[in-house]
Amino acid sequence: MAATLMRCAPWLLAAGAIGCNLAPGAQSAPRSDSGTLIVLNKTDNSVSLIDAMTGDRLVDVPTGDGPHEVAVSPDGAVAVVSDYGRADAPGHTLTVTDLSASKVSDTIDLGPHGRPHGVQFLSDGRTIVVTSEASGSVLLVDVVGSRVLRAM
After folding, report:
1. Residues 6 or more apart whose Cβ sits within 8 Å of residue 116
2. 101 Cβ contact list (under 8 Å, min separation 6)
């Protein structure tokens, strides 16, 4: 596990457990002095950016309902959160956060593909793969173009 965390630094991802969502062969973001922990707050519909060295909460950024998983682009510029939704209302969006500005830069509507779950950047840094539990599909999404490229 330590090797994985070192490979992912400084963007450590937390959503109940610490993990990493870098595509194979992708480079992590440039190393900072302490790193940043990205924590999903499911009931508050937000993402907290936390200084990994001090534990200080830097900022909370809003997401859609029920943020579930997060992936950080290979260059560390953006984080994409799958907005899973609530029990009575399936989510169908992805929230894109500009990490340097610490704010939402886009919300991508997945249309009929609700309950987005696993999310992973491809090595191009602009395309993600995300699963949809509601439609049983795997989606290719252009984060820069804010659109679903393909549903399989």
Report:
1. 68, 82, 83, 84, 91, 92, 93, 94, 110, 130, 131, 132, 133, 139
2. none
Calpha distance 119→136 (Å, rounded)? 14
Q: Is the model's pLDDT at 74 over the cut of 90? A: yes
Over its C-alpha atoms, the chain yields an Rg (Å, rounded) of: 14
Q: How many helices (H) and strands (E) does the chain have?
A: 1, 13
Q: Indicate if the pLDDT at residue 76 is higher than 80.
A: yes
Residue with tokens 């200084």: 51
DSSP 26: P
d(CA 11, CA 39) in angstroms, rounded, equals 11
So what's the pLDDT on residue 34?
58
Contact (Cβ atoms closer than 8 angstroms) between residue 97 and residue 87: no
